[in-house]
Known about the structure:
The chain is an all-alpha fold. It is about 55% helix and about 0% strand. The chain has 14 helices and two strands, in the order H-H-H-H-H-H-H-H-H-H-H-E-E-H-H-H.
Amino acid sequence: MTINISAAADFMAGHSRVLDRRCFQLLLGETDTAGVLAAVDGYRNPDGGYGWGLEPDLRSPESQPGAALHAFGVFQAIAPATAPQAVALCDWMQSVSLPDGGVPFALPLTTTAATAPWWQGADPTVSSLQITSVSAAAAHRVAAHDPAVAAHPWLARATRYCLDQIAALNEAPHAYILSFSILFLDAVHDTYPEAAELLTRLGKYIPDDGKLYVEGGTEDEYLHPLDFSPYPNSASRALFTPEQISADLDRLAALQQDDGGWTVEYAKISPAGSLEWRGAVTVNAIDVLQRNGRI
């Protein structure tokens, strides 16, 4: 299964926000990191956090943990280059962390318009393993090439929170908590000895076919092997057979639409968010296929 990069480029030009266009060009080696950083800075607030719809289903302008995840993804994408904004984001994450080291799923919103109900209804007084684990996973991948992020005290506290919370799981968690926890354990596998055993334990919650239905999502919303293990040569690949990974790469490539882009299975919240998600998932699809040798 092959994809049409030219059609994808046309889709990005006609449908995507500047940030995703810049990230797409970066994947193809057609732009520099300065342009990508300038684009993500448009979502940055004076406190060092990010808002303004950087998380497409959370349109409120104030800094939010959900937006921080996307910003860390940008700082990962520019490797081996580093940016002072990454350390500043760690400072912000530390400022909103709760005493147990986790961060809330969302902070109070200054506007709820066009924002998904799960962000609106979040309890800002309770730490969320879902958002803390996926944010810390992305930060650890930044830390692999940014010593300042690696040494930041927020990351150490968030890591300990995640490890303790994952160890305390005694039943199958929600699909996204499971996926994000596995991404986190992959990211810390080589530096935290307990990660290997926890990864094996979580793997037992993945169905034999590698396909997990998202409770509370849309009728067609499932997580697939590459949602759990997008990186080749990662520890989580042991949770799947080579045939499952190969078949899922075929599935991902086949999802390219006639207009050149990819689409999403989860709920559409707003016109802007729906369109922005398509650009973001198109970049992600090409990134995953490229990392796994399909491009």
